[in-house]
Every structure is written in structure tokens, then in C-alpha cells.
Design goal:
Radius of gyration: 16 Å
Largest sheet: 4 strands, antiparallel
Shape: globular
Structural class: alpha+beta
Strand content: 15-25%
Number of strands: 6
CATH topology of the largest domain: Arc Repressor Mutant, subunit A
CATH class of the largest domain: Mainly Alpha
Length: 165
């Protein structure tokens, strides 16, 4: 899913990664899907993104093997949502490290607060993206809860392949 240039055949793995992940919407969509918001309308509303832009990004992300389409029932209607693949779930350390960096290096807006990333396996907050800073275990989405005081929410992340109905 190239932004400006096609870097898919480059030797540099950073360029190849940015060829897929360089659009900021991609990481925000993965964040939301890992939080169980894989329905089109939930993504659109939470991200405040146009339907056309979201539709293009989702199609490209399925093609790039970051998301899979998952059928679900909405009343009597069969609909499609999106779930993270293992490739997307492996971006958890990147997302968490971005959150940690943002906590350290960007001002907290009025009414905000510290977002804690809690490793449910040990019950402690981690200040690292890939392994728990308290117990040292490798972090998996299904073991993580993000505590967001500005939303008064505790969002439990979902394992790859899961769509919360």
C-alpha cells in the first residue's frame, strides 16, 4: 500500500515496512481492530475517518495480509467486519512503543491523563512495548489492557483473528 513511492522491492527492511505501514491510518486501524472495533461503522466513528478513505485502507490492509474479513450477524443480516492477522498482532510492540513515546514526549491535552498498559498475566503496568517491564514475559494482545482515563475505559485487546460482535 504505497504512499508516494513503491518501496516493496527495496533491500532496506525499513523502506519495505513503510511501504505497508507508512500511512498513519494503518496503525490507527490496527489499534482499533486489536481493541475489538473491527466493524466498519465502529472504525469509521471512532477514527472520525471518511467512509471512502476507510474503505480503501481496509481493502489495502486485507491485501497486505494485515486484516482478514470476518462475517458476523447483525440481526437477520450477515455482515463483514475485520480482524487482525498474526502480522498485525505482531505490531503490538510498535503500537505500545508509540504510546510510550507519546506519553514521554508530547504534552497531555486538557482533560487527558496517563494511559496505563496493564499486562493481565501479572497484573502490572508495563513501560516497555515488547516485554513486560514487571515480569519479563513477551506481551501478546490478548494479555493487554489499555487503561484510558480520558475515556474512563479499560480496553482489553483481542487476539489475532477475533472480531468482537
Amino acid at each position: 500500500m504505497p504512499l508516494r513511492s513503491d518501496w516493496s522491492t527495496e533491500q532496506c527492511p525499513v523502506r519495505r515496512s513503510l511501504d505497508v505501514l507508512g500511512d498513519p491510518w494503518v496503525l490507527l486501524i490496527i489499534r482499533d481492530v486489536l481493541h475489538g472495533r473491527g466493524r466498519f461503522d465502529a472504525l469509521r466513528d471512532n477514527l472520525r475517518i471518511s467512509e471512502a478513505v476507510l474503505s480503501r485502507r481496509l481493502s489495502a490492509m486485507v491485501e497486505a495480509d494485515l486484516l482478514v474479513r470476518v462475517e458476523y450477524r447483525d440481526g437477520n443480516r450477515l455482515r463483514q467486519g475485520y480482524a487482525a492477522t498474526e502480522a498485525a498482532a505482531e505490531l503490538l510492540p510498535v503500537l505500545q512503543q508509540l504510546a510510550i513515546w507519546g506519553e514521554r514526549h508530547t504534552p497531555v491535552p486538557e482533560g487527558g491523563g496517563h494511559m496505563a498498559m496493564v499486562h493481565e498475566a501479572c497484573g502490572m503496568e508495563t513501560v516497555q512495548g515488547e516485554t513486560c517491564s514487571a515480569c519479563g514475559e513477551v506481551l501478546r494482545p490478548e494479555q493487554m489492557t489499555w487503561v484510558k482515563p480520558w475515556k474512563n475505559a479499560r480496553d482489553r485487546l483481542q487476539p489475532a483473528g477475533t472480531l468482537v460482535a
